[in-house]
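Subgroup meeting minutes
Present: P.N., E.W., G.H.
Scribe: E.W.

1. P.N. recapped why we're keeping a running log of single-chain structure predictions: easier to compare across weeks, and new members can see raw inputs and outputs side by side.
2. G.H. added today's entry (230 aa).
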Amino acid sequence: MILVITGTGTEVGKTIVTAALAAVAAARGERVAVLKPAQTGVVDGEPGDVATVQRLVPGTTGRELARYPEPLAPATAARRAGTAPVTPQDAADAAAKLASDHDLVLVEGAGGLLVRMTDDATLADVAALLAAPVLVVAAAGLGTLNSTELTVEALRARGLTCPGIVVGAWPAEPDLAARCNLGDLPVTSGVPLLGALPDGAGALDPARFAAVARHSLAPELGGGWQTPDL
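Output recorded in log:
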């Protein structure tokens, strides 16, 4: 299976959700691979998002197709670096190859769904080439309803399947907006809420992270999370 992971924007917890998905699949004995088509804002020799997943879920296969040092949209970062961008076909071919000998391939985008990979293509084009579902990672607090609904609406407009939403960083002390959003997100977006990873989960050791992942993802994603009473 291939699953594409996108966010409603940057810094919403895509990589930690990707790691959580890898952790619950690995606990089932599945062979898991993570593909990052374009890593931005990281120079050679520095750990990127793939390394974060592999640190949290040892044994995960990781592949990064390109990296660009400036923290910009991949198309812009590639142009400024004087290198070729990663095309949707490049990403789709790499994902399909990984799927030939893995049970689950997780394709993590950069930023949001419509951030440009090339001047005229986005992560949505990768998902379309793969005919893969797209999981949306959302923020917890104020403003997330609009950005999440827009992302899901963009997926629907392109005929892409969205199995649901995961909150990427649930605060230890959620405010009123965050608490209300747990109930409002599935209503406004029209897709289910499938989990919430606690803020700071990326700092855990692999064993503890695996336990947190299992409790933070809904049964549809292999975990045991249930929407709390509001």
